[in-house]
Design a protein that fits this description.
elongated, Rossmann fold, 10 helices, alpha/beta
């Protein structure tokens, strides 16, 4: 099965600069599961959520079709990484207590993924989609620069599927009973260079640089340096969760 691989060429950048999910996210998901024997993290990337889940589940199977992403993933004794697509995993029938996809479902063949979740989950298992929205940066001037870059500079280069992130996956239909989600957010204290590294990991930035060269990204760097000369600032991503019970 083919897949849209937007991140293999920047796997190390992705691993270095993508934000880490808060421990409260793993706690909230585990607390809604009737059993915490096995969690499946589909489209796990570099394992940002997989390792957090390992604190609450006996075993985490983290699947990702891009081997370069897995090569850069953080290791943990309770996390097993497998290079395979979300739509066709090697998990056993009715073996999973939690099926979660974090910032990944918009890249899946959605009907195929839903069928695979139905196959591998136990009765009563929790299904979760996690996404984080447009980054919020402390300071009006810096925030305005990032918003402009996101919408108007990198905006035309987002691959198809990004619209699902922006609308919180509400258009992705599934057949299971909805579970009320908690209100959560990710926050970090970052330098300007950390934020720029994160922006460099966007699939839209990768495509922008491929098409137009580094000048638009370099301009962002220059503008942000004026608005944010030094120090750290609070960076925030609102989390959107969709939960269901099988």
């Amino acid at each position: 099965m083919s897949f849209s691989d937007h991140f293999s060429v920047i796997a190390r950048t992705y691993a270095a600069f993508r934000p880490h999910y808060p421990t409260t996210l793993a706690d909230e998901l585990a607390n809604r599961c009737s059993s915490t024997e096995l969690a499946w993290d589909a489209g796990c990337g570099n394992g940002q959520l997989s390792v957090a889940l390992a604190a609450r589940f006996e075993q985490v199977i983290a699947t990702e079709p891009a081997q370069a992403q897995l090569d850069a993933a953080e290791r943990h004794p309770h996390v097993e990484y497998r290079c395979e697509p979300a739509e066709k995993s090697s998990l056993g029938d009715r073996s999973v207590d939690l099926a979660v996809a974090a910032q990944a479902a918009h890249w899946f063949d959605w009907p195929g993924y839903v069928a695979e979740v139905a196959r591998v989950t136990r009765p009563g298992a929790l299904v979760a989609l996690v996404s984080y929205g447009i980054v919020e940066v402390e300071g009006d001037a810096a925030a305005k620069i990032i918003r402009h870059y996101y919408r108007h500079v990198a905006g035309p280069f987002w691959p198809p599927g990004r619209e699902h992130v922006e609308n919180g996956y509400r258009d992705l239909a599934w057949p299971w009973q909805t579970v009320a989600p908690p209100a959560l957010a990710m926050t970090a204290q970052w330098t300007r260079e950390q934020l720029l590294g994160y922006v460099a990991s966007w699939s839209a930035t990768v495509r922008l640089v491929d098409v137009k060269g580094p000048e638009p990204y370099d301009q962002l760097r220059s503008e942000l340096a004026k608005a944010w000369p030094d120090g750290t600032r609070t960076v925030r991503w609102p989390l959107t969760l969709r939960l269901a019970r099988v």
